[in-house]
Amino acid sequence: MNSNPRLNAILLKxxxxxxxxxxxxxxxxxxISESKSHPSATDVYNKVKELYPMVSLNTVYKNLSMLASLHxxxxxxxxxxxVHYDGDISLHGHAICExxxxxxxxxxxxxDFKRFFETKIKNKLNENYRIRNYGVEFYGLCGGCDxx
Length: 148
Ligand SMILES: [Zn+2]
Ligand SMILES: [Zn+2]
What we know:
Blueprint: H1 5-16, H2 23-34, H3 41-51, H4 57-69, E1 74-77, E2 83-86, E3 92-97, E4 103-107, H5 110-121, E5 137-140, H6 143-146
Parallel strand pairs: 3-5
Antiparallel strand pairs: 1-2, 3-4
Helix pairs in contact: 1-2, 2-3, 3-4
The structure holds zinc ion (ZN) (2 copies).
């Protein structure tokens, strides 16, 4: 075992779901579990290639989609229609720049957010609705892009 709890959690899930762990897959999981920068599939691909030059972008993309379907990474869509990946699945929001696509983590208070849902949204839905997952995206201009 190692000292990265996200990596261990993902590896455990992979094993439980019966997926094999190829060296490339392990490397992709390592990269995404350590990354704080919300990389795109191409960013991850460029890193994996340093160790496994034969890896294809499609393999990287498929692995990231598989991890997203297991809820072990979050997919974030920018206005540029590119998909970025977040290995940090703890509750937080994202501020996404509409111009350069930069993604910044935004802290969210879980209690406030649940109360907001209960009071403002739940009444409009089926009353048995149970939230299992949610995300908050803010779109705008980052400090660098707002200048010009
Ligand atoms: Zn920007
Ligand atoms: Zn994030």
